[in-house]
Amino acid sequence: MKFESLRISGLRCLDGVSLTPSAGINVFVGPNGAGKTSVLEAAYLLSHGRSFRAGSRDVLLKRGASALSVFAEVRHADGSLRRLGLGREGSRWQARVDGDAAASLGALVQECAVVCFEPGSHDLIAGASDERRRYLDWGLFHVEHAFVSQWRRYQRALKQRNTLLRAGGSPDPAWLAPWEAELALAGESITAFRRRYLERLLTHIQGFMVNVLPELGGFNIKYRPGWDETADLASTLAERRQRDLARGHTTVGPHRADFSVAFEHAPLREHLSRGQEKLCALACLLGQASLHAEIRGEWPVVCLDDLASELDRTHQEWVVAQLLGRDAQVFVTGTEIPSALTEQPVTLFHVEQGAVTALL
Fold it and tell me: What is the CATH classification number for the domain harbouring 318?
């Protein structure tokens, strides 16, 4: 997948921006605070429905602006062209695909694939479990359409059970039982999807990990489904009713799932330095992109925010070498062209005070 055009209005400091990126490596340079990262944010927003930076979508709106919009034309490997948009006016967000209102944000997300390595990427390894669940589920949204219906089914049942738990008093078990049955069926299905996906993903990640962190030995991932699998989910939900009632929410299930990474010579995440966490996250993101390409026949767009600050010269060159040989569209930001790209063919954009200008 490649962006053929990108238009941004009312996003942080960007307004009235229109650019035509090349199919290869696109470098956005300019001073700090100029809006370089916001260009990547716009692309990511179409693919994930949220920013990769902390905060809600509400903070994306440019100060003083009443509306925000991101539109793009994306070309897929089969030659098809899709017109995608996401906008906010007032408090209402709306997604559009080929000019029509999308049935859901998920319908937009499924049409646009972007992965991003940025200063907060180490949270995939060291952060809260919801980061790792989003990582898995985003990948599954794009490569396993049957997963989407099960995920929505689970979310609906979870919302209903939690509403009953918060209603006060002691709800009739007959009210909870149907939603628990729905949770269990969808939850077991989600868990099976995630396990199969991780099994395929692991091979791709290992292929990159052996190059970025060879000193740590073999790499593996352990998945925890969100409940003790010595019992099935249906039995666990019934057993947890009183505890969940006291807490006012459902404490077991795939919405509490997590995974942990382990190396032969660093079996615990705490054994990793911050730099190693970043490299581990990079290998995980590239592995996910590679699996996406294997299944979908095209690489997602790869965003590398502040590349020169996040990676040393050796790892910059390694990443560039990996992407040059894989027909991937790449967006890179920096205060200047990263040293690893000075001798590579790139399309250069200058960003300053929210304006983006093509230079080469």
Answer: 3.40.50.300
